What does this fold into?
Amino acid sequence: MLYVVGFGSGAGECMTGAAEKALKDSDVIIGYTTYTELVKPFFPDKEYLDTGMRQEVERVRLALERSLTDKVALVCSGDPELYGMAALCYELLDEFPEAEIKVIAGVTAAFSGGAVLGAPLTHDTAIISLSDLLTPMEKIERRLRCAAEGDFVIVLYNPSSRKRADYLQKACDIILKYRDPETVCGYVKNIGRDGEESHICTLAELRDESVDMFTTVFIGNSQTREAGGKMVTPRGYLYE
It folds into this structure.
């Protein structure tokens, strides 16, 4: 059996009961090195195998192969369907026709981070990664324009890195063509981990904020506002 497990944003309290059970039932836990290190303190008696960044195909093949003889958990942060390994496991299944896969949902950073900020996702939401490692930047920019023009709340994953230091600024410039500079926004760093911090700001201010790969960014729609010191997007119940 191969469990493809989403352990949430920071493991520990962010992990669902189903994820915890799958990890307890597994003989081997496989994942990206950073992720296995997050899980190890909670399941120290397991066998661990890990691979580095950009070795996703090798990692999934390893997990599928081991699952033919053992119960294996392939761990992903957040949810394994959202920028995780779930799809790749099914894509490679033809190479391992006897393998059995079960996807275990996890709480992605959009929801755990949104809870830290308040309630920014109570209406239609678009989640977009700014990483162009696997997606052409032209497509990312088109998605940003469409989401901004459609007045979606926008959640940005992978907003910046050493090689992409200005990507959040560029994304904000695109969105500012469709949104008021005073649009309520927020971001959360290290969700569910040591050093967690959150900030609420305007879209104009967000453009110049310093963020990293462990930051999730929330850009409000035209109705998003501050309430009780939190970022809130009304669903419309008070206006029926």
The CA atoms of residues 169 and 207 lie 5 Å apart. The mean pLDDT is 95. Residues 109-232 form a domain with the Methyltransferase, Cobalt-precorrin-4 Transmethylase; Domain 2 fold (CATH 3.30.950.10).
